[in-house]
Amino acid sequence: MTQERCIPSHVAIIMDGNGRWAQQRNQLRAMGHRAGLKTARKIVTYAANLKVKVLTLYAFSSENWKRPPNEVSALISLFIYALNREINSLHKNNVRLNIIGDISRFSDHLQNRIIYAQNLTRSNSGLVLNIAANYGGRWDILQSAKKIAMQVTKGEITLDEVTEDHFASTMSMGEFPEVDLVIRTGGEYRISNFLLWQIAYSELYFTDTLWPDFNQRLFDEAINAFNARERRFGGIDNKEQSC
Question: I want to staple 184 with a disulfide (CB 3.0 to 4.6 A). Which of 7, 14, 91, 106 is the partner?
């Protein structure tokens, strides 16, 4: 009897390669980001159909501000466009949208759109779609440390109550399960300051495919690779352990 494939509960994707995809076609890098948005739309739909519980997409890192101003502007404009265009469809399909990262650097208009989108979909019970925007893993850990320091200072908790579980609960995705599978497209083999705490025991999958060319078949290949691995979480072999 063929063993049923296990679908990871939480998948995180570093969507790399938009700029190179555009350059290979003698197009502006902004066109690569637009193509990447189309891919993201397809993968969100497919993940929901697979019953993935949480999908986290790395859309805009805190380091992306270092890119040329015209590209940063194009990314922000695309983010606003995506929020305006996709939010009703996400809501209709029972997807909950959650933005993680320091949104204070964005314009008031964009911050208001983010708040509106999150509030609109907050009660949805389907796929949770986390979009990491102006996000960095070090920032995430630091802001959690500051929260806990404030709690201790105010006497709300003691130092002995600062456990790993408590620390994790104060982070951007504290209410969601830790990441099972990290996929990075674009041929790079690094994490790039993404979810440093949450991926401590994640399975990592790298593909040379540029993000705009990523598709459902390649997503399936990543999940199949995930199924072929044995997750030990620092322990010994356990053939009976499920994902």
Answer: 14
